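Appendix B. Extra example for self-study. Work through it before the problem class; the solution is given directly after the inputs so you can check yourself.
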Amino acid sequence: VSFDYLLDGFVVALSWQNLLVGLLGCFFGTIIGALPAIGPINGIALLLPIAYTIGLPAESTIILLSSVYMGSEYGGRISSILLNVPGDAGAVMTALDGNPMARQGRAGEALAISGISSFAGGMLGVVGLAFFAHLLSLLAIGFGPAEYFVLMVFSFATLASMVGKETVKTLIGCTIGLMLSTVGLDPTSGAYRFTFNEPELGSGIEFVMLVIGLFSISEAILLLEQHSAGATIIRQMGRSLPRMADLVLSAGATLRGSLIGFFMGVLPGTGASVASSIAYTTEKRLSDRHGTFGKGDVRGLASPEAANNAAATGSFVPMLTLGVPGSGTTAVMLGALMLYNIQPGPQMLTEQPLLVGGLIAALFIANILLLVLNLPMVGMFARLLTLPNWILVPGILVLSVVGVYSTNASVLALLMMVGIGIVGWILRKLAFDMAPILLGFVLGHLMEVNLRNALAISGGELGIFFHSPISLVLWVLALVIALAPYLVSRWVRKQA
Amino acid sequence: MESSTMKITLDSGRVAALFLLVFALLFAWSGSRIEYAFASDPLGPRAFPLLLAGALAVFSIWLFFRPGESEAWPRGRILWKGLGIPLCVALAALLLMPIGFFAVTFLLVTVIAWIFDAGLRRALISGVLQAALWQLVFVHLLGVYLPSGSLWGGLLP
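Solution. Structure tokens for the complete assembly:
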């Protein structure tokens, strides 16, 4: 494999249709990120079925969705800074220093600096993506069913160790997702599983319905509960050009945030939110000598913003090379590819070079478009923050109904979406994260197929999962990552 | 309205753990009755679901002893309004075929806006405007097929 696919990718991404789609994605993404009500998964879940039903080709759909993802990582900072309410999960840390800056009358500067560090993080991520996608795809040739199964185990180990505060809830989420993936026709034996004689369940639980139910319907109920708690928006922007001294001061933080973010993004399952919180705490430990973090320190603003954009880009690496999503949002994109009958996996780069190259090129272009959208035009997006819930929530619900109906043409699917939404709301109230369910669901089929294929090859011998060097390395990594939080907390206690 | 919420932390986590355990047992029972004529691999279609059911059972027992944190549940008016949202979407789904997308959008937007305290007048205006907007975007601009309503018998566009 050479890097030719990247050049071809730019040809794809620079076609007028894909440029337009990318620009629309960046624009909507920034809005989705800025609005506290909806994050990237929601936005992508609502746009995916529409893109699919109006007949956009697979490359264009992926370009649209990834531009939305990038855009929302830029947009999330706007409400973090101006409202002290994170626009999406990746922007939680941005509020810690961004909002104090805004309250000191430096909102314009905070927006500009975070915009620039988002750009730096995103661009570093794209370069890393191009490089690592190439490297990993060479490695991916050595993956057979056994290695693939161990890779899934590794993915769940990172998820359980990194995502959410309570390991058991993440594990339960993964298991529920895996269980849901077993519904429908089992292709190797022809058996119908858990369909209860309902023909619509024969092909399994439909992905768009599950995502929209889990995220949008449950979100609407949560929004009603938070409805009474008001937040105040900061309108005084101050100067909108960053000071040179601040840019120099934040350069190191931006670079460190980008690197941490990218590698957290590459790990299966850990996306922008985990990355930005690790970047922020690391930066605080390294640079906070005068206790200025949390009071409007530019480094505390630049680091998580660089990290969340780098992580969003990094999470495409395992998705494109191994078919394992790097985050909840890339899990939805993996589902999007399946809608187009493209099976993600180790052969992605060799079988779909235009799609992979086009996506990487589109991310490069999206970062430039987003910098332009987010520096001079930030005031326009800021005005959207005052959009009341009574306009926004009905809109989200209409989009949910259209999305699920247009992909299924079935009223039953809509009713199931509502049921899933209620269960999702209950789980979210119990502090369950929704992303593990989604990852379990997306990986479930692959996990089972590879488990069974590996055992069919070995004749039922379990040793096949420990034979190759790749499997052994993955087992060791899984063990290290699973034990990491425990070991780190012991080490920290010893230091104290 | 904030005072109408109550902190239930330990109990709801435990109740959820019990529900999950029952679900795992039902899943295992149903999984063990999967019928199949042949299997080309040593495991067959039953093993993976049974493995998952076992895992969920273990995790739910773990959760029962360590229920962890959970948020306060809404009560009173907020609870009824909150449950009203999925109910409205379900009704919208059932009405979609008979009265069509335009009318369903109008009703759904109006009622949900009203639930979110828009006031009746603003809710109605929002309903009309959003129904027109989404009809224009999806049906006319993007060409998505959405039912126009069997009740009207082709009287409407």
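Self-check: The radius of gyration of chain A is 22 Å. If your reasoning did not lead you there, revisit section 3.
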